[in-house]
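note to self: the first set is below, dont mix up w the second
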Amino acid sequence: MALQYIGLDDINGSLVVLDHVKDAHYDEMVELQLENGTTRSGRIVQVEGERVVIQVFEGTNALSLKNTRTRLLGHPMELPVSMEMLGRVFSGAGKPIDGMGEIYAEESKDINGQPLNPVARVYPRNYINTGISSIDALMTLIRGQKLPIFSGSGLPHNQLAVQIVKQAQIADKNQGFAVVFAAMGVTNDVANYFRKSFEEAGIMDHVVMFLNLANDPIIERILTPRCALTAAEYLAFEKNYHVLVIYTDVTSYCEAIREFSSSKGEIPSRKGYPGYLYSDLASLYERAGISADAKGSVTQIPILTMPNNDITHPVPDLTGYITEGQISLSPELNQKGIFPPVDVLPSLSRLMKDGIGEGYTRKDHQDVANQLFAAYAHVQEVRSLTSVIGEDELSATDKKFMEFGRLFEEYFLNQGFEANRSIEETLDLGWNLLSVLPRNALDRVDDKVLDQFYDHDKAVRSFNLQEDGVIKELQEAVK
């Protein structure tokens, strides 16, 4: 028979304190019964001897110090899982909110997950196609990778997230593929935008959604990514699906951690965040991977907004240490009307080299990626020089690079919200752009590869260039 504790010792915000509790465990779930007979859920967040601190999910309003009855449930928070989760929408705490009733659960799983044995981890190979040229060609997403998106205030990261969910796919259509999408601390408008976009695109049959709104309790915001990753691990490691997990916004999650830490009276670290923020984020990010015991994989794209676009802020700073690269969004490209505004030069995928090339994408993938990076980097140098001496004083080769930079941004980066490019289309477009440049300027590619793919005449026709290299469209715009 389970023990019930009558009365509370203290109430502080969403926290309650209970004394003389034996055999309590950190993260254990509890049930609190109010005087009127209603019940609320809580979680033990601190244990000091026989004194425990409980965070109440639904808040502490109307709780009585004398008559509240508390019962320890003897297990951590668990998420009911089954294949019925596909196509469903849940709250941040894993409760169905789509009006379709409860799911029939095959089992319930601890939302904190089970750590992957390092020996059982399989090195990530192969790629996930997002249909977005800048990502697929230059910072390829590899199965089992964690590749965050660094965004800023006012940048279209929500639209980019929707586009990735709509277009993401794996090369082998015979293998199961699913997307787990989690939103944390979003407004009703944004939540409705996500739901409506996925439903209109007709992709809900392979999507599981978790939505935590801005007015929901902060404890639910802390649970949201854990519930999402638990669903992903179930699909990947028990049902052999390749699962892409996208969750936004990690900064909202970290602010909830900071508020929660402050309410417990913990000593703050950088910018008020707790000292354990690094390990807390690692407990999420490190749940990506591939296990030798299963055929599936968990790949993560966490999205975070950098306050004041400061990449040294604790959230992007710590995220960069844990993850395997980043996709950065550019305010300058966004102002030019380019979508998606991916800032190529500070973006990278550290696992890209092991999941592209012959047998995965195409044998020339690494060559075209290296040369595009090098050429666009030189474009930035030429633009800096132009601001000093003017474009008329540039050499003929540098003028070609300026032309390449305009075309690269207009045709390669700026593909729009609806365009879904295959990896072949992306790589062919990359070669078309490189062929605008003089052949002797392409110093990152072997001559044999250039012989096969370099075609200046085709580039002139593709981009409607005149012999002197001036774009007709630009001339007409000036007139």
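second set (the one i keep forgetting abt)
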Amino acid sequence: MQLKNVLIVVNDIERSKKFYKDIFGLEVILDNEGNVILTGGLVLQDATIWAEFIENLVIPHNNASELYFEENNIEEFAQKLDESPYDIEYVNRLMTHSWGQKVIRFYDPDGNLIEVGTP
């Protein structure tokens, strides 16, 4: 068995496609009306479709999981976030853990938690 993708729920597919392209450089591989596969294995699912499928509420900002990216030049990435047109909600701005890894955590426009760290 092999893990193929990670799916996150979003309210506005077009906004999310633009966000993940602008911030992370991810490109659309497949766009199936409410279900979009991006490079890197990230899948965007329309919240309305997802809620109908699971027959339950979608709960953003739940902090139960995060998307993790690595970036060698994290200072430049932090500056890119600060200068982006997006209203970034930070969990923590650029910080250094006791073991030396630098990380920044924030939410995407739909409340999905993201961490970017140095390798």
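remember for set 2: The chain has three helices and eight strands.
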